[in-house]
Structures are given as structure tokens and as C-alpha cells.
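Researcher: I'm preparing a figure for a lab meeting and need a structural model of a single chain. I don't have an experimental structure, so a prediction will have to do for now. The sequence is pasted below. Please return the structure as C-alpha cells so I can convert it later.
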Amino acid sequence: MAHAHHFLSRLDRVKRETVDFALSLYRDAELVKWILGTIDLPDSAERVAIALLDMPQAPHIIVARNGHFVTCLGEGMSTGPHPIITRPRLDGCLKEVASFRAQRALRRDVIRPGGEDLDLFRLAFKRGDDLSLEEFDAIACWAPLMASDLYVCSLEMLVQALRQRDLILDAPKLEREPKFLREYWSSLWAVSHLMVLAASADPAALGRVVDYFDEQAQTPTFLAYQLGITGIVARNAWFTARVGAKLLPHYRREYESPRSRAGMFDAVLGLDAIRVTDESSAVEVARLFDQRPAVKTPESIASAEYGSLVVSISDEQAERVVLTHGKRLCMELTRDLPRDHALAFERAEDVPDAYAIAAAARHPAHFRMDPEAELFTLSLARLLVRREAREFFLPETFRDCARPDFATQARALLAQQRIHDADKPKLVVAATRVGRNEACTCGSGKKYKRCCGA
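Model: Understood. Here is the structure written out cell by cell.
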């Protein structure tokens, strides 16, 4: 209390226009403690000087390590041995805190009364393709705390989705079970949501995930391509672009020696995502796409053809293809709304581009359905890699008025999968007993006792 009184009594050392700013910091204890927590203070430092202006000989406030305000120093007064937080650094902290508080307020709006933050993450697992922009924003503010864990969780959901899909394909009667179909559909999109959240939080934190795929000799998005959904495949490319050039060797290896058509497509989209978002890798990838395969196999020839195709697609062409398709999707989703409804668009040109892109990003068709679907997928991936993750989601006002029937979409996807089943991954079933400390046969990378043997 004595410190606070001394600080207030020394405010006359600074000019009037600076007093209000100093008092705003004084009244916001949470903010000051957060700022002090972002800097590495020497163990010997008991106090910190915070500059109030960006200028030589700036006025400062002196605060203790615990956030208590000590005194105020006028222009030209020495800060002594205290570490200094400059005004530009302070402004950066203020911007981050403002963003966090806005997300926290949004989170409170999304969580139901009496709910918890854990309920937010459940939305990513349960919503399917219906996760809204507001819900994504609320979840994303927690993502930086668990980036790599989110990606590992996406792999677990991927294994679950593939199992559910194979069960339905082997027993078509399960398609008539709404609960099972909903679990399958939710698992599919949970894979995508978790991957996007992981990469949007902190791509650098995914380093150990990249190391794991070094050992597996495959790309971190390969298995997700087996799900087949156009929107998810394009988001995989966004994930690759976010993680960046460190993934280049993985995709190059798969491109030069593709093991399947899905692997080839995965490699081409991954390489193109790196090419258009990382200038230092652009020449290397362009040269790779220009090369003819050293060993000619049907897969390597197709790989080279797709490489040439993706390079030929301009950014303008990609945007035109996606917007045309996305606006058509929005028109279909809203066609049953009353004519006087704000979202009842009369013409495709009336659909906002933001809605069109978000609708395209959740497109549920199988990307290997036909050449036109593959061209659309290539274009969508090209467009999304230059966008922010939140642009993949429709706002609640639109989502709530235009919900497609998930069961119809899931059954259509399964029907398309039956046609394009040549590349279906076979989950390994152990013929002999698996040791509890051995790698799980499902391919998750976990020990058997912590995965299927749990």
C-alpha cells in the first residue's frame, strides 16, 4: 500500500498527457503481471522500469516483480540498474493482451452458462463440418498451449475415422444407424479441425511431430488424404504451408517415389503449398516439377503430370474456380430460406466472397471422384494456403440457417469411396500376440498398451 501511495504521489513528475496512460497501467494489475511474465528477468532484479514513451530519456514507471507500483520517474531521470521494458515492446504486449481478452470474451459467449473451457474442445470433436467461425475463434485462443498435442490427437482421430469407415464399407447396414454415421462424420472433420488448430497456434512447436515422420518415411498429411474429402485435403495443404520448408524432404521423397495415387496427390499439393508460401523453396520445387521421373512407373508418371498441372494453375484461376463453386454451394444451402431473408441470395454474384470460400473449404465430395473434382481440389488448396485458418469457417448466422443433412453427405462420400477404393489403407490386424510395450499395429506410433490395448 505504501508503494502505491508513493507511486501516485510521484505522478507529478510526468506530463499531463502521460499521466492517463500511467494510471491505466496502475489500474490493470492483470495486464502488468502478464507483461512481467513475458520477459526474462535476472534473478537479482527486484524491480523493472517500464517506458511510458518511445523517446530518449523517456519517463518511466518502476514496478516490483510482483506487479506492485513503486514510483514514477520523469524525463531524463535515471532508471538505475533496473531492467527496462521499452515502449515498442510494451505496445506489442498491449496488442497481444487486447487480442487475448477479445478471444476470452468470445469464449464466454460461446460456452453455455455453467459450462467449462473443456466444452469448447468437445465442439471440435462433435460439430463435424458445422463448426462455426465464432466457435473456432474461441477454441483457437487455447491452441498455443497444446499445438503438438492437438496434432497427435488428430492422428488418433484419423485412425478412428478410418476404422469407422471400413466398418461401414464392410457392413452397409451401419449406414442406416444415425448415431454411428454421426460418429463417423464427426471423426472425419475432427481430424481436420485439430490439424488446423495445431498449425495455426505455433508451427514451430510441431518440430517433434516432423521428427516422428522422418522415422516413418512418410508425410504428416498422407493418411489424412485417405479420408478423401475435398475440404480436408485442401486444409492439409494449408497445414503443410504453415509448418513450412522443413517438410520439403518428406514431400519430395513421396513425389519422386509415390506409393499410391493418394500419396502422389498428397506430395503434389504439399510441394505446391510450400512453393507458393516459402520464397526460399520456390525455385527448388519448380525445378522438381519440371523434371521427368528417373524411374517410369504409372505413379511416377502421374506424379510428374500433376506437378505440371498444378504449376499451370494461376492464383487468379484458382480463386475464380473456388469462388464460382463456393457461391453455387451457398445458393444451394440457402435456397429454402424465405425470399425476404437476409441470406436468401437471388444471384450467385450476391454471395459474399468470404461465405463462398468458407463453404468451399467444407466441401464434402470425394476429391478423386473425377478430373473436375481434382482440379477444384488443386485450386482450393492453392487459395487456402494464402488465407487465415478462421476463413475456413462460416459465421453462425449463416451456419444456423443453412445446415446440410450430414447423413446424406456421409452416405454420398461412402458411395464415392466404394468406387475409388483402390488406395484404401489397410489397417494391420496382428496375426500374433502384440507385446504391450511394442508399437501398436494400427500405425498411431503409440505403444500397444497406450492405444488399442488400453
